[in-house]
Amino acid sequence: MRRLPLAPLAAALLLAAGAASAADTTIPAAAVKTAEQLRDRALQDDTGYRIVASLTTEVGPRIAGGPADQRARDWAVAKFKELGFDKVYTEPVTYPLWQRRGEHGAIVAPFPQPLVLTALGYSAGTPRGGLAAEVVKFDSLDALKAADPARVKGKIVYIGYRMQRKKDGADYGMGSAVRTMGPPIAASKGAAGYLLRSAGTDPDSRTPHTGVTGFRDPAKAIPAAALSNPDADQLERVLAYGKPVTVKLDLDCGIVGQYTGANVIGEVTGRRHPDQVVAIGGHLDSWDPGTGAIDDGAGVAIAMAAAKLIRDLPQRPDRTIRVIAFANEEMGLWGGRAYAEKHAGEVAKFQLGTESDFGAGPVWRMSASVKPEARGAIAQIARVLEPIGVAYDARRPGGGGSDLSQMHAKGMAALTLTQDGTRYFDWHHNANDTLDKIDPKELAQNVAVYAAFSYMAAQADGDFGSAPGAFAGDGAED
Amino acid sequence: MRRLPLAPLAAALLLAAGAASAADTTIPAAAVKTAEQLRDRALQDDTGYRIVASLTTEVGPRIAGGPADQRARDWAVAKFKELGFDKVYTEPVTYPLWQRRGEHGAIVAPFPQPLVLTALGYSAGTPRGGLAAEVVKFDSLDALKAADPARVKGKIVYIGYRMQRKKDGADYGMGSAVRTMGPPIAASKGAAGYLLRSAGTDPDSRTPHTGVTGFRDPAKAIPAAALSNPDADQLERVLAYGKPVTVKLDLDCGIVGQYTGANVIGEVTGRRHPDQVVAIGGHLDSWDPGTGAIDDGAGVAIAMAAAKLIRDLPQRPDRTIRVIAFANEEMGLWGGRAYAEKHAGEVAKFQLGTESDFGAGPVWRMSASVKPEARGAIAQIARVLEPIGVAYDARRPGGGGSDLSQMHAKGMAALTLTQDGTRYFDWHHNANDTLDKIDPKELAQNVAVYAAFSYMAAQADGDFGSAPGAFAGDGAED
Ligand SMILES: [Zn+2]
Ligand SMILES: [Zn+2]
Ligand SMILES: [Zn+2]
Ligand SMILES: [Zn+2]
C-alpha cells in the first residue's frame, strides 16, 4: 500500500487551474486529515469481519420473508445498538412472499439420472409428482426471442449461456438477462418450463445459482430453475446424442401471499445538520442456499463498521451517517423501492449515498454523479482513497448501488465504489456463499473506503447536488 | 515430455553388473519396442476419455445395488464388445444393499439453520422426523477412543479433522480413519449419532464427501454423516460460543437386504498362453452424489483403453490381458474380495496385476512386489515409462490397487502405479466427481502407462513370482 503525500500538492494545482470558486463544495483540511486517520485505522480494525461473522453464524441464510427474516431484523437492531449507534429504527416493507420448499430434477430419457438444480425466484411450482417434458435448447436469449412458439410449446426451454469471470462482473449482464428475461419469454410462447446454465462463473461446482426471474404476473409464471455448470455440461452432452431428451422438474415453490418485513436503519447523528444524511448500507436479506456472506452480509458489515469508526471519533460528524440494512433486495429491490418512495420528498437532504452489494473484494474504482461544483470535493475524496488502491474515473457516473439506486433515481448524489468481482459470481446466489469466502483484509479495505468517504461527505462545506430529479439520464447502471 | 533412448544403454549396464542370469525374467527387445509404440500411440489416442465420457453420461451415478447398477453392467458388457474384446463375461457378487433415500441436517439451537451433510455408507437411518441431540466435539479420533462413555452417551459426536492436499493423498489415512472407525467407536460408547468434517480437501465447497463406515453389525449402527468443509467451519463457530449446541439429523437410509451384482470382465485372449493373465481394471460402481468420473470411471476407462490398444496390434499378445470392472468397491471391496475368493486357486496364473483407482491424474511413481528374478523386467518396464514421467521406486512394494489388493494378498505379483492425487480428494465421493474434472491428456498418459506395462508383462520370458502366499507381509498398502 502506498502512502503519497499528494493532497496539498494536488489541491494547489487545482487552485492554480482556477477550478475552485466560492460556489464549489470543498472538504476542510481538518476533515481530510481525520478521514485519512479513519482510513488507516479501518485497515487495522476487524469490526467489519466480526459483524459479518456474527450475521452469517447467528442468523445464517435469510431469504426474504423466510424463517430467519424476523431474526435477521432483530439481529440488525441489536447490532446497531451494541455498536453504539445514536438512533435505531425500522421502516416496513411489504412484498409478495415466495417460498422454496423442495426441488428435484432428473433426466428421464434417454439416460436417466438426477440433475442438480435450484428453483429461481418467483418460479411456479410443478404439479405434485413433477413435470416431465422434452427439452428444446436455444443458443441464446435472442434465439429464444426469435423462436416460433410451435417449437417451444409444451417443452422445457434450455439456454446454456456460460458466464466468464471478469473483474467488473460485466458478464452478469447477459447472465442475469438469461435468468430474468428468459422465463417470461419462454412462458409467453407456451413453454412448460425453463432451465438455464447457472448465471455463475464457477465452472466445476455442483452448486446451482438461484436468483430472481422477471415474471410480473404470478398467474403467468412457469417452473424455472438453474442447473449447476457441470449439470448443464451433462445435459448438453446428452442433447448432443441427437435423441429426444426428457427432463423432469419437481419444484415445490411459489408465491403464498404477502409479507411485511422492514428496512433496519441505524444512525450516527450529525452534530450540526442532523437532518442531512450520508446514506450507506447493504441488504439484509440473502438467498437461501448459502449464508449470504458475500451477498450481502459483507455490504451490511462494511457500512455498519464504517459508521461505527466515525461514531468512535471524539465528536459526532457534522451531518448524520445513516446505515440502511435493506429488506428483500434479492427479489426485486423491494426494500430500496419502498425506501425511495417514502423518502423521495427529502432527497435534497441526502448529501451523498452509495450501497455496497458486490461482495467483499477490494474497491478499485470510484465514480460519481454529483453537481459540477462538487467535482473538486470528489477529487479530494479520491486522493484519500488512492493510496489504498482506488482509482477515480471521472468520466463514469455513480449509481448508488443496488437499493440506493432508487434514491439516486429520485435525485440523490451518488458514488459507485466498484469492488473486484473476479470471483464474486463463483459464489453468488449459491450454497458456497459462506463466510470463508471473505478475506478479512479485503473487507477492511472496504470499510476504510466507506469510513473515509462518508466522513468527508459529512464534513463538506457545501453539498453534492442532490435535488428532486437531478442526475436523470446520467447512464448509471446501478 | 522427454523421449530418452535409454533402454539399450541401461540394459547393457544391467548385464555388465552381472545381474542377469538364465533364471531371470526378461522382456524381449521386440516387445519393448512395441510397448514404446503403444505408449506413444496412447498419448495421442482419446479412447480412454471417450469411454469415461460414455459411462458418466449414459449411466451417470451408479451406487452399488442402486437404480443404475444393472445399467452400468450392461454398459460395460456392451462397451467391451464394441471395443472388440475377445471374451466378455460376468461373475456374480453378493453384498448387503444399503440405500440412501433422503438426508437433511440442521442446527436447532442456539442458531437454527440448515447444515449440508451426506449420510455415510452403512449409516443407520434416524427415526422418522429426525433425531435431535446435543453435539459433543472431539479433537481427534484418539480423543474419542479415550473418552468416558458418560460424555458421549445420547450425544452426537463430532470430529473435525481437516485433510490437506498431498500429491500421494497421504492425509486420507487419517481422514478415512475418522470416517470408518469413528462411527463404530462412538456407537460403542452410546452415541446417538456421528458427524465428521468431510474427509475431503476442498476447503470451501458445500459438497460433503460420503464414503463407507466401519459398522460391522447393522444392528449396532447409528446415524452417521459428513458435513461439507464450510458446514464444519460453521458448526465449529457455533460451538465456540460455548453454549450447548443441538443438531438434528434426518437420514432416511439403511440396509434393506442383499443384492447380487457382478464383476464385469473383458479379455484380449493370449495367443500362446491364454490361461496366463495380466490383470488390470477399475471399479464400476461409484458413490451417488457425483457421476463417478474420477472414482472410478477413470480407472475402468484407463484399463479398457489400454487393453483395446493392445487388441489392435497386428497379433494378440502372448498372454491374456484381463480387464475387470469390479462391483461395489465403495462399500468394502465386495467385488475384489469375491474375485479373490473365486480365483485364489489360480493365483500362479496371474502374471502381474494392478488396478487404477485414484483418479485421472498422471502416474508419477511405479513400485512392484515381484520375485527378485523379475526385478530386471520391472526395470525394463520402468525405462519405457520414465520418458512419460514415471519414476521407479525399487524400495517400495506394489500392492495391486484397491480390489486387486485382494489377489495380491493371495500371492499375485503386483505393481502400484501412483497417480498425482493432489486434487483427487477435492472431488472424491462428492457431487463434484464429474467428467469436467478429467484432463484428457492426463488420462491418456495413464492409458499409455497401462498399455505399455501390460503388454510387456504379457510378452515376458518368465514370470513375476505369483504363487500362493507369495509377498505376504510386503507392507503394500493397497
Ligand atoms: Zn446483493
Ligand atoms: Zn444477490
Ligand atoms: Zn475408488
Ligand atoms: Zn471411492
Automatic annotation (TrEMBL), chains A, B:
Source superkingdom: Bacteria
GO CC, alphabetical: extracellular region; lysosome
Gene Ontology BP terms: proteolysis
UniProt keyword terms in alphabetical order: Carboxypeptidase, Endoplasmic reticulum, Glycoprotein, Golgi apparatus, Hydrolase, Lysosome, Metal-binding, Metalloprotease, Protease, Secreted, Signal, Zinc, Zymogen
Domain (Peptidase M28) ranges: 263-452
Major location (coarse): endoplasmic reticulum
Segment forming the signal sequence: 1-22
TM region positions: none
Entry keyword annotation includes Magnesium: no
GO molecular function: carboxypeptidase activity; metal ion binding; metallodipeptidase activity
Compartments, record wording: Endoplasmic reticulum; Golgi apparatus; Lysosome; Secreted
Family annotation (InterPro entries): CPQ, Peptidase_M28
Subunit structure comment from the entry: Homodimer. The monomeric form is inactive while the homodimer is active.
Full protein name: Carboxypeptidase Q
